[in-house]
Fold Beta-xylanase.
Amino acid sequence: HDTLGDLAKRAGIKFGAAVNTDVLATDAKYRHLVGTQFTSVTPENVMKWEVVEPEQGVYDYTAADQLVAFAKQHHQVVRGHNLVWHNQLPAWLTSGTFTAAQLRDILHQHITAEASHFRGKIQQWDVVNEALNDDGTFRQDIWYNAYQELTGDGTGYIADAFRWAHQADPHAKLFYNDYNLEFTGVKSDAAYALVKQLKSEGVPIDGVGFQGHLDTQYGYPDLQNNLQRFADLHLQVAMTEVDVRTFVKQNADGTYSDTPATPADAQKQIDYWTNTVKACLAVKACKSFTTWGVSDNYSWIPGVFTGEGAGLLYDQNENPKPQYFAVADVLRHA
Ligand code: G3I
């Protein structure tokens, strides 16, 4: 039968998954699903700074290169994730021994090295990830603080990052990526102001990634309108990390299942998934939809939100769930 990727292709979009490369190497069923169901892949961890530059100036692209090769073999595009983030930085970098000017040089070097290494192989790069707090202020992370000290404008690293990435890989589409942009409010407004400003300064930004980590307890966001207003700035938009978590039942041994706590939650998950796909399909500039993982047994959610889970389209045994069939239907009738 048709895969999600096949159906999405007919609907005119890529349908991708974030891939855990350790699991890809060891779990044949997972590998089969990744290779057949999806037309785009994102490395869940192995293009992040702590993995690719574990020692200063010493690069290790082994795992990421393997995924890029897998993608080529399976005619998939690759979303690069990510070049600049406050998280998953190597210890040598966060040790606090660098001056602000050195940090700017380190950032320049890292972006240039990594984006050059993958030049021509990345469809969309998440150049800057999660620069904003939920209250719409800028996250005062290592990059912000360095630029603040150097130039009096902490946000300056963002424009630099896009310019350096563009120099290193002129054909990749360059994205700002963040969570909670799905909801109308201060954070989405701040991201809108940020990318509008970048565009007006001629910074080479091509798109905005809406991560889409949804939770049934918070209600379904005003997603389509938010996608559309960013698209109206002549930017691409993409759903980059979609999962829909909910509270789940506990097993007798204390572990958590991937069975939603109530039938109402189970139905909400299906509705959130279908509405999210429909929102992307309804916005012309949304051509890429990625789920943050494949199956519930390898999802990041239970490790971070105790008692929540069941966020993905496949269950803990890597079998398709009702939301899989619901999403397939939406794509089929697009
Ligand atoms: O690789 C080490 C391993 O050597 C060690 O034994 C093990 C022990 O904890 O940790 C392993 O590292 C883990 C890493 O994933 C690789 O599996 C980290 O502890 C763990 O924190 C890390 O979690 C990742 C998380 O980002 C970090 O913030 C998740 O897998 C990944 O799904 C998640 O992805 C993020 C996106 O990049 C950005 N948006 C939000 C999204 C979800 O948090």
Q: What stands out?
A: The chain has a mean pLDDT of 98. Residues 140 and 169 are 28 Å apart (CA to CA).
